[in-house]
Amino acid sequence: MTDELELLRDWDADAAPLTEPARAQARHRLLNMMTRTERHPDTAPSRRHALRLATAAVVAMAVTGTAVLLTEDGADEGGRTDRAGTSAPRMRNVAAVTVLNGAAARASKHEKPVAPRDDQFIYWKRIIKETERKTGAVKTYVDVNWDSVDGSKRSLTMELGRVIWEKPLGKNEGVWPPREWSKLKELPTDPEKLTQAIVGVGTSDKPIDDFTAWDWYDAYFMLGELLKWPVLPEGLRPAAYEALALVPGVKATPGMKDSAGRTGVGISYPKRASEKGKYLIFDPESYEFLGFRDERTSRSGKKTYIQLSHVADWAIVDRLKQRP
Fold first, then answer.
1. Residue 127: what pLDDT?
2. What InterPro entries does the entry give (predicted)?
3. pTM for the structure as a whole
């Protein structure tokens, strides 16, 4: 299956209402498919489009006449709901926590507050260096993007060199991260509150001590997507790094190369197979964020690629296609 909507087509409209574990499983299968979409941009809607579909579906989604309620109800990896409100002790990798908290401190010190107007655009340029595993062939893409600050205008984005025009969001549509700057500003800058706010895309208010394994996966996935945004309101990026440090199971791997050939420390979430080969890369001494490492597979399944990427430039501009 290459379209995340196919995951929901096999639900029977006449079946009994979904149990809480089944709802949780449906939601997390959708999140996992969103991750696959990142790896198969040539065969499925773009990552940004997939997130638009999925986020709109967190409350409810109708597919071929079948309404599926996707909730924040938690289940552990075996599909069991933690009804007693208890959870296993959260084990964190000390090295990963040190890097992420160091990155948060550095981001707080160096971030420059911005306040774009609603009628402006966020311009950003991303460099992607893609290597085919089997042949070692390397191709570099320079993707440029113009995103409407308030989401009311068309946005122009690129993925692996392909131009994508995105229409303004509909009345009941949303994306993650939020397109509108005003909604980004509403996100908490307290790490624990931010983690609570993004689990279920704002539909969960459970304390993090009650988080299940799937809740933590939600948190890790959504925080990683948030950090891909080139510029965030003051305090939000440091909070996101600190929130990642709260996730049990995050791991630090030294000796990772970034897209500029610099050696850094990779932060990953090996507890989930869908996150295999995906890293946030940081300088091992200054904790400066360097970029992302990802993997994707061709439609045929015969080719796999390693992707290294980083944001090379960004600015607030007045017009679509305007460069700083």
1. 93
2. CU044_5270-like (IPR047789)
3. 0.74
